[in-house]
Amino acid sequence: MVGIDLSASSVKVVELSRGQKAALRLERYAIEPIERGAIVDGNIEKPEAVADSLTRALKRCGTRAKEAALALPSGAVITKKISLPGGLREEDYEVQVETEASQYIPFPIDEVNLDFQILGPASSAEDEPDVEVLLAASRKEKVDDRVAVAEMAGLKPVVMDVEPYALRSAVDHVTGFLPDAGQGRIIAVFSIGQTTTSVTVVLNQQTIFEREQAFGGQQLTQELVRLYGLTPEEAEARKRTGDLPDNYQRDLLQPFVEQGATDIGRALQFFFTSTPYTRVDQILLAGGSAVVPGLVEAVAERTQVPTELLSPFKGMELSESIRERQLRGDAPALLVAAGLAMRRFDA
Question: Which stretches make up the SHS2 domain (predicted)?
């Protein structure tokens, strides 16, 4: 099974397998640019264009997998934790969840795809304690759009996740390699995308804070277009290669890096003022714009918190086809795709 992340700027594909010397092995991956305007605010506006990019990505990475795991953006999903009586049969939980869901979903229940997960006991009662249940619902059209894209590329979608949950799967894998598996450490993950930065703060494999803010790589791209008369596609390409005029670093890159470090510092202050927590032990930067030169150092200096780029492939074996140097630059953008690929190994 391949994990597929559909974002506004690119399609990302990751395939994992069981390793021989490590638990997991990265078999192959690909990142393929997507036509501008094909995906807007998480909505697929041009399915054929997205499917074309996905087809190219599958061909380039050489996978023979036919099953796929995809994810919906958090804005397309309603999630709610509820308490239900323990000890019910599966079909009874389905009825109960559907009844409860109708209270929280602002459109007819027959227009949504609905699922649930029993998280564990919700009370300490000895006889059939209540259980905490996470329900998730999305408009059927949102799910169907992604299913259609996968099918146009010759794949069979078998998992539909939620992007923040897929990201968390990758983060949990990485924190497992920290001393004591990261227990007791407050870790802030900043995923810097094209238009937004998502903030996830984790303690003991539990999310204790989530937020999105308007900062992303598109701001730097737009400045390149404005200052140098490039097309957006040229600007994206030159951003990666560094093939830009001498004044680029001083006039555009440095202000962008400073803005990013400032915004991350503000997000941490918001975390401190809106939760009982007063510290962060580690910052991990992910997303396609996290690899901008100087950002890691600027964030560490601004926040006074150890900061590094996050690779979801930490501790994994790499297949012979993977170029390590290329992977170092690409890995921070592959968190969601890697988290989705890990769903292959769900019990």
Answer: 1-171
Say what angle helices 47-61 and 140-152 make with each other, to 10 degrees: 50
Structure tokens at 257: 């890096």
Q: Note the CATH architecture for domain 75-139.
A: 2-Layer Sandwich (3.30)
Residue 347 has pLDDT above 60, yes or no: no
Residue 58: CB atoms within 10 Å? 24
Domain 178-311 has CATH 3.20.20.70: no
Q: Which helix (H) or strand (E) holds 137?
A: strand 131-139
User: CA gyration radius for the chain?
Assistant: 21
Contact present, 304 and 234 (Cβ < 8 Å):
no
Tell me the C-alpha distance between 263 and 195, whole Å.
13
| Structural domain spans, the chain | 75-139, 178-311
Q: How far is CA 312 from CA 99, 130, 298, 328, in A?
A: 38, 35, 22, 11
| Pair 282, 185: CB distance under 8 Å | yes
pLDDT, tens digit, 9 for 90 and up, residues 182-205: 899 999 999 998 888 999 999 998
**Model confidence pTM above 0.85:** yes
**Cα separation of the two ends of the chain:** 14
Instruction: Name which of 191, 168, 214 is nearest 41 in CA terms.
Output: 214
Helical segments of the chain, H only: 47-61, 90-104, 140-152, 163-175, 218-228, 232-241, 248, 254-274, 295-303, 324-330, 335-341
Strand partners, 110: none
Reported confidence tier of residue 126, pLDDT bands at 50, 70, 90: low
Q: Are 284 and 174 in contact (CB under 8 A)?
A: yes
Q: Determine the Cα–Cα distance for residues 80 and 77; give it in Å rounded to an integer.
A: 10
The pLDDT-based confidence of 90 (bands split at 50, 70, 90) is: confident
